[in-house]
Design a protein that fits this description.
single chain; 495 residues; GMP Synthetase, Chain A, domain 3; six-stranded mixed sheet; 13 helices; 17 strands; 35% helix
């Protein structure tokens, strides 16, 4: 495993900003409000060829009084997360606020990390230049730690700070493992409304209290990556903030948290949508389902907190949820209880199966034989006195199974028939739970010889390349239209 460096300190000293600057990318949410970071955030960092794990932690409060922004319970949970980070880390970076000077909390934090017996670097943050460096650093000499003044916001001495951290890692003498024998597993994002039980579910799966859990809604504010190994594979869970209705979001911090939650669900291999089983499928749950379906995200639905439902009512409640979710028949729905660890064992096997289905690739020959069989079973309906002609089918090179049907006119293919084609492809090629995208492409001529090209899919129409056919096919179509016009003219003359 890589060496680990933990960033610790009291609240609102700039740990998350330093975390992002050391990584050279925005990972942790930063805000002037104290207590934004609660769970510890782990990311792999590389400085001048030195690889190590960097951990951001919540603000440590060792005094008996709680801050106005956080309850005492939250402070205890946050301190426990920081303590675990210190125990697991190989080196520690203690961050203090140079503008406020040394506080009793800083002294307590310094004493706490000194007892760990691990290398400690003191970074005095918010020092905006050499002209104020001496005055801001004077108080911190009494701590007896190797220190360096920096400014995470303005970049003062940040390059020197990176070099000092890299030197700390090199002095540890730990091997830098470029590769290991552990197979990369699935990246799974937890998504849902506040207080649905996402963090509890991750803790239940990995078998340890890795994330802060509380009855208070909105405990998780940032997107937290939790990596663990099971069965020779390395899995990563992404715990996200609860997604409320847009009209109920008033704070900028919550708005950023929601955007990150949705962004992570799009980027992950599989998403677990967690729904509170004690409540029916809410309007917000349906909006999240619509988002996942529209973005073609592989996802499953976990109906959580079933331990609060009477056993005699569980079947009835599950039938209600399946009825509400009939709009997504391919999505697996199952009941879970994080308290009793019921049903959580289904998540990893299902995620592996869905990822494997997304990697399904079918040859063009097999696809066209399947197309012929499907059309023989059920012909496309006639639209505007014309029946769509399907020429052939191919699979596009996409992350999820994407099939393109080439037809004479995509505008006369009904959405209901597109759904029929999708369902038949699922049955024939064993795509049970993964999302499937189907398109129709066409190329034909309107009156006056103007070419009309386009592409349509289920619920979507837009531009496409189209396909050109031979002169014989176009000639036959023209002759058919001419014959119909002559017949119509003859009927007029007979009348």
């Amino acid at each position: 495993m890589l060496a680990t460096v933990a960033l610790v300190g009291r609240p609102n000293v700039g740990k998350s900003t330093l975390f992002n600057r050391l990584l050279r990318r925005s990972v942790a949410i930063t805000h002037d409000l104290p207590g934004v970071t609660r769970d510890r955030i782990f990311e792999e960092c590389q400085i001048k060829g030195v690889r190590f794990g960097l951990v951001d932690t919540g603000g440590m409060v060792l005094e008996s009084e709680a801050t106005p922004e956080l309850s005492k319970d939250f402070e205890n949970e946050i301190f426990e997360q920081a303590r675990e980070a210190i125990l697991e880390a190989n080196a520690i970076v203690l961050v203090v606020d140079g503008k406020e000077g040394m506080t009793p909390l800083d002294e307590q934090a310094a004493e706490f990390v000194r007892k760990s017996g691990k290398p400690v670097l003191l970074l005095i943050n918010k020092v905006d230049g050499s002209e104020v460096e001496a005055n801001m650093c004077a108080d911190f000499y009494s701590l007896g730690l190797d220190m360096l003044p920096v400014s995470a916001a303005h970049g003062y001495k940040l390059n020197e700070a990176r070099e000092r951290v890299a030197e700390m890692v090199l002095d540890l003498g730990l091997p830098d493992e470029e590769e290991d024998d552990v197979e990369r597993g699935v990246r799974i994002t937890m998504l849902g409304r506040p207080n649905a039980g996402k963090s509890s579910m991750v803790n239940a799966i990995i078998g340890q209290k890795r994330l802060i859990v509380s009855d208070v809604a909105g405990t998780t504010r940032d997107s937290i990556d939790v990596t663990f190994e099971q069965g020779g594979k390395r899995y990563t869970f992404v715990d996200t903030a609860g997604v409320r209705r847009r009209t109920n979001i008033t704070e900028q911090l919550e708005h950023v948290s929601v955007l990150r939650a949705l962004k992570n669900s799009r980027r992950s291999d599989v998403t677990v949508l967690v729904i509170d089983g004690t409540d029916r499928v809410s309007r917000q749950d349906k909006r999240l389902i619509e988002f996942l379906v529209r973005e073609k995200v592989p996802f499953m639905v976990a109906v959580n907190k079933v331990d609060l439902i009477e056993r005699s009512q569980s079947t009835y409640v599950m039938d209600l949820f399946r009825k509400e979710l009939r709009i997504v028949p391919h999505v697996p729905v199952f009941m879970t209880s994080t308290l009793k660890k019921v049903g959580v064992g289904k998540i990893l096997p299902l995620a592996e199966s869905m990822k494997a289905e997304c990697a399904v690739r079918v040859g063009t020959g097999a696809l066209n034989r399947a197309l012929e069989s499907v059309i023989q079973q059920h012909q496309p309906p006639v639209v505007k006195r014309r029946r769509p002609k399907f020429y052939y089918i191919t699979q596009a090179d996409e992350e999820i199974p994407t099939f393109v049907f080439f037809v004479n006119d995509h505008t006369i293919v009904k959405e209901s028939y597109m759904r029929y084609l999708e369902n038949q492809l699922r049955k024939l090629f064993g795509i049970q739970h993964a999302p499937v995208r189907v398109y129709c492409r066409s190329s034909h001529e309107k009156k006056g010889g103007e070419k009309r090209r386009g592409m349509t899919s289920i619920g979507k129409r837009g531009p496409g390349k189209g396909l050109r056919y031979g002169a014989k096919t176009r000639k036959q179509e023209k002759e058919t239209e001419t014959t119909l016009r002559r017949r119509h003219q003859d009927k007029k003359e007979r009348k």
